[in-house]
Amino acid sequence: MTASSEQKLLWIDGAYVAAKSGEFFDTVNPATGELLAQVSKAGEADIDAAVAAARAALGPWKAMSGVERGRILHRLSQLLREHRDELARLEMLDGGKPIAETPEADVDSGADCLEYFAGQASSIQGEYQEVDGGFFYTRPEPLGVVGAIGAWNYPLQIACWKSAPALAAGNTVVFKPSELTPLSALRLAELAKEAGLPDGVLNIVQGFGDAGQALSHHAGIDKISLTGGADTGKKVMADAASTLKTVSLELGGKSPLVIFDDADLDNAVSGALLANFFTQGEICTNGTRVFVHESVREAFLEKLVARVEKLKIGNPADADTDVGPMISPEHGQIVLDYIEAGKSGGAKLVIGGEQVAVDGCDHGVFIQPTVFDACTDDMKIVNEEIFGPVMSVLSFTDEAEVIERANNTEFGLAAGVFTRDLERAHRVIGELEAGICWINHYNITPIEMPFGGIKGSGIGKENSRRALEHYVRIKSVFVARGAIDAPY
Ligand code: NDP
Asked: Which of 76, 87, 317, 286 is nearest to 181 (CA)?
């Protein structure tokens, strides 16, 4: 991606096509502001075309055996691995993510997902039971055309996490990436074609919220899967209701990380760093409310600060950069406003809290990893999702108290507990209202483990065999074995 004049089109029916309106929008490097490409902007007519292509491709795709579908997905996972460096660089350029992160967190994660669901494709099974003088069986059938809408923080990973289980189960897909990070999904579609995916099975439409809305409303789409903010989730669900589509929603969070007095503090600090500063804090599951037992709070903070000081803010293209720019200047300003709210709201700034300049990256808003101590439950920074490198440390003394405070949020995405007392660990996890939990770790998301929030953080699961349940419908078939005893 060098030519600033490069144009990227929509990917419909296995080929690039320009949006009917002829309109384009820019996608830029969040660090440097360099124009990466002008991207064709889909309108309703283009969404119609993509849905029609997906509908036409559905019959032959779902008629394939699971083994055949899995073979193609497996080839695609191999192609992702072969193009690891290229894709990692693309994610860095388009999303501002440090190049130290993207090979593993983005490309490998996407490839793992494709590989996992390649294996699952041939093992989607129904049930059988003898009942009432006959038997029944169930047929798990694909839903049809899936509309998928992605956020900007993990563009390639999200495209894979949504399309792999959908395709494995025999659905076809129309995917809309965030307009801030449109490029990697197009490359995924190209590689999918190279892997042998039939035309029309995976379509990429580019655009803004209105393009996502057109998908949610569309009568030709059978299911919507969104990764995005909670407000967007509510709108998508309301729009999907007009045609009674099922929805999977991966939304935001304000997750608690609870550190007990018997925790291995070095591990707890590692967990808190992973829970707050990876991808410069732009991660939905982040444990941004760090509850630390009062008796170890000082020691925890001392160790934490010593390690935060070492984080290197810089150009995401540099191999030693830990913290890159915010996705956009607008989002950067939102994060800076939260930091001001923390300062003026009475939280104690322990480290960070400033925007910094990075050579050659004038466009980027780079924000120091920031830790606030002496936070209270009523503070704005403690209650609202910031989606930036801002950690709030809260003190507690009692297990029941911290559980109640940890649950005192509209969200329920993730939670973490650090303690050496495993009985307590499981007891506390049992009480926490969160869909994804970690004991003595944070933010690790193996493909085999179900991933998804509860409460205001979403509906449904991604990854694991559970994800497949959201991409099939069950048809029940009763089979009679003898004469019918009719009352008439
Ligand atoms: P948004 O909710 O702003 O956007 C998400 C996607 O929805 C984008 O593609 C967006 O398009 C599209 N969209 C916007 N409005 C509508 C609408 N009315 N109907 C349909 N689609 C619409 O989220 P962000 O992209 O800003 O991502 C950050 C949010 O995503 C955070 O809240 C974060 O917590 C959450 N998230 C959740 C994850 C999870 O797995 N639980 C993982 C990653 C992020 P466009 O961008 O073009 O406006």
From this structure: 87
Q: How many angstroms from the chain centroid is the CA of residue 121?
A: 22
Contacts of 436 (CB under 8 A, 6+ apart): 285, 413, 414, 415, 445, 449, 450, 451, 452, 453
Catalytic annotation on 250?
Answer: yes
Range of the domain at 15: 7-252+457-475
Distances from the Cα of 398 to the Cα of 117, 205, 226, 403, 418, angstroms = 43, 51, 37, 9, 14
Span 20-39, average pLDDT: 98
- What is the residue-averaged pLDDT of the chain? 97
Ligand 1 — pocket residues by CB below 6 A? 149-153, 176, 178-180, 208-209, 212-213, 216, 227-229, 232, 235-236, 250-253, 284, 385, 387, 413, 453, 458
Q: Ligand 1 centroid vs 301 CA: distance in angstroms?
A: 33
List 91, 115, 179, 250, catalytic entry = 250
Q: Which of 422, 258, 281, 255 is nearest to 338 (CA)?
A: 281
pLDDT tier, 449 (very low <50, low <70, confident <90, very high otherwise) = very high
Question: Mean pLDDT across the stretch 277-301?
Answer: 98
Does residue 265 share a domain with residue 222? no
Distance 233 CA to ligand 1 centre (A): 8
pLDDT digits (tens, 9 = 90+) for 149-180: 999 999 999 999 999 999 999 999 999 999 99
- The amino acid that residue 132 corresponds to is D
Q: How does residue 5 score in pLDDT terms, banded at 50, 70 and 90?
A: low
Residue nearest to atom 16 of ligand 1 (CA): 209
Domain assignment of residue 470, yes or no: yes
Average pLDDT over residues 246-265: 98
Q: At how many degrees (to 10) do helices 209-217 and 230-241 cross?
A: 30
Q: Does the pLDDT of residue 267 top 60, yes or no?
A: yes
Q: Residue 363 sits in a domain of what CATH number?
A: 3.40.309.10
Reported as half-sphere exposure (CB side, CA atoms, 13 A), residue 201 has a value of 29
